[in-house]
Structures are given as C-alpha cells and as structure tokens.
Amino acid sequence: MSDKAITILYIDDEEHNLHSFKASFRKQYDITITSSVVEAELIMETKDFCIILADQRMPIMTGVQFFEKIRTKHPKPIRILITGHTDIGAAIDAINKGEVFRFIDKPWDYKYVETAIAHAYEIYKTREDLKMRNIELQKANEELDKFVYSASHDLRAPLMSVLGIVNLALLEEDVKSQNEYLELIRQSVKKLDTFIINIIDYYKNARGVPVVTEISFEELVTEVQATIQYLPEYGNLKMTTDIDQAGVFHSDVMKLRIIFNNLINNAIKFQDKSKPEPFVHLTVKSTPSHARITIADNGSGIKESDLDKIFKMFYRAGATNSGSGIGLYIVHEAISKLGGEISVTSKIGQGSTFEINIPSIAK
Amino acid sequence: MKPLLNFYLIDDSTFDLFIYEKLLIKSGITENVKTFNSAREALKHILSAGTDLPEVIILLDLQMPDMNGFDFIEEYDHLPEYLRDKIRIFMLSSTIDTRDIEKAKASPHIIDLLPKPLEVNFLRKKLSI
C-alpha cells in the first residue's frame, strides 16, 4: 500500500487548470483529470482514489454539490475543494454538506497544494489502516472464541472422566478392581496434563520472543527421545535416526523442540500395533543455510480427505485415540514462525511421512 | 415387571464409554449397553438394524471429531419415523457453553442435556422410573 502511488482525481471545468495541475504533479502522484462531473462519477466506478479535488464553480453542479452526491457511495477518498473566491456560505456548505477536508485558493501555490495532499493522504491512510486493523482484530476475536470453546472442553472433559471413574469406584465393593480405576484416572490426568503443556507451548510459541542459538540436531533429538521412551504407550516401537549436520545451523531451539516432540509423539500415538515391527524413522540433513527433516512411520496413516485439514486448530482426524487436535496446529505455527514449511504424505493403513524444510536464521 | 431398557452410548472417548457402560450396568438400570466410538458408526448401526431395532435410549456425547452430537441429530432428523419412534435421545456432555445448552434445549429430538459425569438417579428421574 505504501509503495503504491497516491491516486488523485481532479475535476475542473477549465481545461487549462487541469493540464497545469497534471503537469506540475504527474511525477509524484497518479493523476486522473476530467472537466465533467458526470464523467467523474463514471471514472470513480472503475478506479479507487485516495484524494478528490474539485473546483467549486462548475456547470451542472458545484464542487460542494458533487461531494455531497458522491459521499455516501464513495466515502473513502478525502475531499479537497478548490475555489476562486470564497464566500462564507459556500465554506459552511462545504464543511457541513460536503465534509470537505481542506480548501485550496485559486490561483494555487505548488507548495500549498503539495502539503494539502500530503495531509489528506495521511488521513486516508490512517483510516484504511484502522479498517484493516479492525478486520484483523475481528478475526483474532473469532479465533479466540473458538479457542476458548474448544479449550474449555478439552480442559473439562478429562476432569469429568475422572469424576465419573471416582463415582464408579465408590460403587465397587471389590477392592481389587480399584487398581483398574486408578489406572484410568492416571490416563485421564495424563491427557489433561498433555493438553495443558500444549497450550503453554502454543502461547510461548505465539507470544514469546524467539531465541536464536546454534542448534545441534543430535543433542536435540537425543533429548526429545529421552523424554518419550519410557511412556507406557511407547510399546515396542522402534525409533531410528539418521542425522547429518554439516556446519553451524541457527534456529530457535524451543520451537524445534515443540516440533520434534509433537511429531514423534504422534508417531507413537498412531502406531499400528497390528504390525509386527512398528517404527518411526527420523532423518535430519542440515547445511549452514537450510535443514530438511523427515519423520516417517508405518503407523495407521491419515485419510486422504483429512490431509489438508490436519494442521488446523482443533481438527481431530481420527475418531479413536485422538487428542485435542492442537498438536499439529502448534507444529505448523512454529514452522511458519521459523520461516519454514511442512508437508505430509500418507496412505491409510501404511504410514505417514512428514517433511519439514527450514532455513537457518541469520543472527 | 421392570421394563428392559436398551442403552446406546455414543462417545469418541473410549474412557467415557467404558465408565458409563459400567455405571449403567452396576446401577441396575439396564443390562444391555451398546457402545459406539463415533456418531457415524451408531447411525450406520441404526440404519442397518431397520425394523429389528429394539427400543433404545441413546446417550449422545456432544464434542466429537468428524460428526459431533448436533450433526448426529441433524442426520437423525432424516431417519424414517418408525426408527425414530423407537429412540429416545439424551445428550451427555461436559459442556458448560450456554450456546450448546440452548441449542440442546431447543432441539425437538433431545429430551434433555445431562451433565457429565452421569448421575444415574438423575437419569432415572428423567425417565420417570
């Protein structure tokens, strides 16, 4: 918007005024001129203007009448009136009826017009920016609303499950089966905790200041592996890695950890236990400028119709065993914040491969 | 004689299916509980049962992936009347969102919205048994 030329429409029945105006300012602004108010209206149908200048004394209608006429249909342009001799009545009309931003006296002075245009454009731009900001805010509010709705469900549901289990356990006279209930409570609490950690990750990711440091992919992967291999749902999954890092790579370690953690956890969660050798294979190939990471598994795979939706917030593809639908959204957000891209290929029943490409961040 | 009640539980949480199946049986309100992990699965079952469908009480979860509770109700609305005549639906949800509550109340197909965790005595009262 800022590098686009300021568009100006100038209407005056005296042709030589139009031409001298255009000659003086054509290098600075994108100028359209016309001697007819009728034609001016037609031009405005096809082109957007930041500023409209009109002469007050014209046949058919005055400048003020023209402004009054177009104001509701074209509220955006800032209006400037050019007058030869101002009487107070015309001035009052101009302000009240035409909502004119400024008067320019004839014969006009180059500097004066330039300043008037600069001020008018400032107002135009401020209004447009405000409008844009409002639209963005509205969108953010809608997202927040959706977030609160889904988050309150995901916070409350596991708690209500625990309460349900407790109610059930209280009915039970057989003390031995209590352990079974405790195990269910453990799982439910774990689910809730995972969600809370995810939410915190999301906020750190969205609001936190990125900290760019030297990355050792070897270290990072070992660290993530250490936190997950004792999970009960790990099963007999076999995780292999192939890390090839040449030279120094700079990035935000916090975001990378979120990415690795979520993707590897998903591979664990969605492993196909019916297969004899469930695996997840992670490769990293990094140069000083770029890193390519792939995470491939032979898990349950993703339906083709879900592939374009899995990175959306709170989208849950699987009907069973699915989480809250926030993990991959956070991964996607983190990767875009790092200036990278993620893609996925998957076949239902066969497995999924996630590929991530991120640039090294210059310090 | 005690009427024999059939319950269908529809919930994406295998946890809650397990809990409420046990709870319903333990409370003595029923001996027949069928569980469905997704609303679509339940719908398929109802359609394929056809005239063999027994009289059932459905406890329907609200927030589920793919087809949620209200989506299910929309599909249910199109079911033939002889099927709908055999079904009574309660929504069973942990929602505290007023829009959800209003929507459930407004639906002609939902008898009531029961909060999770399920209180069997509360359900008994609603069924007047």
Automatic annotation (TrEMBL), chain A:
It is an enzyme of class 2 (transferase). SUPFAM superfamilies: ATPase domain of HSP90 chaperone/DNA topoisomerase II/histidine kinase, CheY-like, Homodimeric domain of signal transducing histidine kinase. It catalyses: ATP + protein L-histidine = ADP + protein N-phospho-L-histidine. Residues 7-121 form the Response regulatory domain. SMART domains: HATPase_c, HisKA, REC. Keywords: Kinase, Phosphoprotein, Transferase, Two-component regulatory system. Residues 150-362 form the Histidine kinase domain. Coiled coil: none annotated. Its EC number is 2.7.13.3. It comes from the Bacteria. PROSITE patterns: HIS_KIN, RESPONSE_REGULATORY. The modification 4-aspartylphosphate is found at residue 55. InterPro entries: CheY-like_superfamily, HATPase_C_sf, HATPase_dom, His_kinase_dom, HisK_dim/P_dom, HisK_dim/P_sf, Sensor_HK_Regulatory, Sig_transdc_His_kin-like_C. The keyword Transferase applies. GO terms for molecular function: phosphorelay sensor kinase activity. This is histidine kinase.
Automatic annotation (TrEMBL), chain B:
Transmembrane segments: none annotated. It comes from the Bacteria. SUPFAM superfamilies: CheY-like. It holds the Pfam family Response_reg. Keywords: Phosphoprotein. InterPro entries: CheY-like_superfamily, Sig_transdc_resp-reg_receiver, TCS_response_regulator. GO terms for biological process: phosphorelay signal transduction system. Residues 6-129 form the Response regulatory domain. The modification 4-aspartylphosphate is found at residue 61. PANTHER family: RESPONSE REGULATOR RCP1 (PTHR44520:SF2), RESPONSE REGULATOR RCP1-RELATED (PTHR44520). This is Response regulator. It comes from Dyadobacter luticola.
